[in-house]
Each structure stands twice: as C-alpha cells, then as structure tokens.
Amino acid sequence: MKLELRAFDPRMPLPASPQLRPPLHRVRALGRQPVRALMNLRELVSALKDFANPALAESWDNVGLLVEPSPPHTVNTLFLTNDLTEEVMEEAVQKKADLVLSYHPPIFTPLKRVTWKTWKERLVVRALENRIGIYSPHTAFDAIPHGVNNWLTKGLGACTSVPLHLSTALSSPTEGTHRVEFCVDAEHLDAVLSKIKDIPEISCLTTLPARVEGEEQTRVSLNCSQKALLEVVALLSQNSLLYHKTEILLLQKPLLPRTGMGRLCTLSEPVSLSDIIERIKGHLQLPHVRVAVGAGRTLESPVKKAALCAGSGSSVLKGTEADLYLTGEMSHHDVLDAVANGISVILCEHSNTERGFLSELRDTLTIHLQNKINIIVSEKDRDPLQVA
C-alpha cells in the first residue's frame, strides 16, 4: 500500500462528504462567540479594586481578597453571590468557579483555626480544596456612585440622589493630620527648631519672617501626625509666650462627590406612600414588605424625599429629615423614633435590598473586565428569612 503525503492547502475546497463538512449554521454560530482570555487572579483583583477601591469601605469592615489559592491562579469563571453559604459554595464548585465575589464577607471575625467544625471554617476548606478564591467588597460597593445604594434608588422612580455621608478622598497631597503654626523670636529660634526636628512624623516644616506686636519674629509652620502633635504641644508649652501664640488646625482630606454611605433621594414628582410601596416591591421582586406609617401620615400621604440605605440602615439614616426611610432592617426603637418624627419606614429584610444588584453588577463588570472572563450569578443565594 502506497501512502502519499501532501501539504495542506487552505485554498482547497472542503470535501464533498456531509460527514466531514460542518453545518453552515454551526460555523456562523461559532464565529459569533466572544474570544475570552483568562485573567490571573492578581490581575483580576487589581481590576476589582479599580472598580470599587476597598479603602472606601467602613473602617470596621473586612473587605478585599479573603481566601487566595496558591499562585499562580488563573480565573476563567467569576461567581457572584450576596451571601456565601455552604449551599452556595457547592454551587460554585459545581459550576467550576475560580473566584467567588461574595458581597458580604464570609470571614468577618478572626478565625482561630480552619477545621470542619463550623460552617465558615468549612467554606475556607472547600474553597482551598477546589482552588477557589474568595473576594468581598461589601461597604465599598455601598459607597461608590455605581454601587448598591445607587441601584436601590431606582426602585423609587425618577429622582435625584446624593450620599447621606460623603466619603473622604483616599489620598491627599497634604501630609499629617494637623498643622501647627507659632511665632518665635530670633533668640529662641534655633533651639526650638532643633528640638522640633527631633520629633518623628513631622513634615512640611517652613519658616517665614513675621512682625508681631512691633517685633521682628519668625513664623514657623509644620504638619504632624496625631502622635507627634502631643510632643509638639508639650514642647511649646514649656514657653508660655510661645504657647499662647500657637494655632493648631485639623487637616481634613477633601470629600468625594457622589461617593459615600446611604442616599437622600428627591423624587421628580411627589408620589403617595402606597405607590412607593408598590414600586419598591416591583424593583426588589418581593410579594410583600413591612411598613410603618409616620405619625400624622397615611398611605396616601405624598413622598417627596426618601432616605435609603441598603442592608441595615439605622445608623446611616438616623437624624435625616425625609418623608420616608427605606432599608432592609432597623431596630424596633429606631423605627419608633422615625414614626414619632412623622417619617414612614419601609423594611424589606437585609439582603433583599442588596441581592438584586448582582445582575446589574454582572453586566457592569463584563464591560469593566473587557469580557475577558465568564461571570455568573448564584441561583442558590437567597434571603434566609421566609414568611410562614
């Protein structure tokens, strides 16, 4: 038997046999599929931080990469959930997730051990066994302009909104927490400056000529940390004349527009409380919500201003002047306070005010990550409370 080997010529027509020719509709379908490029975990985490900087989270929160498989770790599938329960973790394993983005951090209080004893420890074990990372943004997603609270405002209808508590800039060109300024005469200048320079965490030390009460003196200005401030004040207080001429200014980072906790929403047109309730139920896809009607108001009373906070909003909403408070949960006494002040309250249960954001997040992250990875939303994630 003689075999003849020839180089393949791509210009040659396909064989006539239908068994060897792929169906034309299948070729076209394959041609429409996006070409996905895998992302390294650290590259993906960096992109998630660009989307919502963890530094915007509340100081008490635990955000960022919580579980990291040994590097290198490649991510093909990002799995989104509001709460990472054991049932949701098994779903992530079945769907071959490489990174779980859990809005609520499954690790909040420190773990002293990682065993099979408690459900949160088991989450870590299952994640590492299956090389699944865990990332949590939590209150960083609350603060950003395109985050959870912004999504929740859409349930009110047409409105404008501003954060209830603005976030501060993540960095500032000004060093230190305080600025100290004082005047000193030429006789004591060198000695004072020498002692000042020995204090750690002093920056931006400058001197300028000054005239005080007809005398030529030097105006000294410096920035310092909270810790260094105590030493500077102790030094200056040794000279009563020097101390009485001292000014201390608190240096604050600038506020970030449209970024922060909660939202105060002004509706384009006043809407009755009963209509707002129906809008919220539709937006959150809930058959019912809990309502407390403010003193002196009814279900037909108009709502023009609504203050909202996804999750547990008591501390964020408290003291805000509005017709309505919208959140997931509030303490009994905070509800009583609001009602006594004529403010109606709508409670939807904690995670019900957050979970619906995941579908919007999936679409937004797909664009942010340039369609490089597969992003799916959990089907098992749900609010733990039911009405029996």
Uncertain runs are 1-33
Q: Roughly how many Å is the radius of gyration?
A: 30 Å
Largest sheet: 6 strands, mixed
Please estimate the helix content: 25-40%
Mean pLDDT: 90
**Outline, from the CA principal axes?**
globular
Q: Treating each run of at least 4 consecutive H or I residues as one helix, how many helices?
A: 13
Secondary-structure-based class equals alpha/beta
What fraction of residues sit in β-strands?
25-35%
Strands ordered across the widest β-sheet: 7-14-16-17-18-15
Question: How is this structure best described in words?
Answer:
The chain is of the alpha/beta class and 388 residues long. The chain has 13 helices and 19 strands. It has helices at residues 24-32, 41-51, 86-94, 119-129, 139-143, 148-153, 186-197, 226-236, 240-244, 273-284, 314-317, 332-340, 357-368, and strands at 39-40, 64-67, 74-75, 77-81, 99-102, 133-136, 159-162, 165-168, 178-184, 202-212, 215-224, 247-250, 255-261, 263-272, 290-292, 302-312, 324-329, 344-347, 374-377. The strands form five sheets. A six-stranded mixed sheet has the order 7-14-16-17-18-15. Strands 2-6-5-4-19 form a five-stranded mixed sheet. Helix 11 links the parallel strand 16 (302-312) and strand 17. It is globular and about 80 Å long. It starts with 23 loop residues before the first helix and ends in an 11-residue tail after the last strand. 31% of the residues are buried.
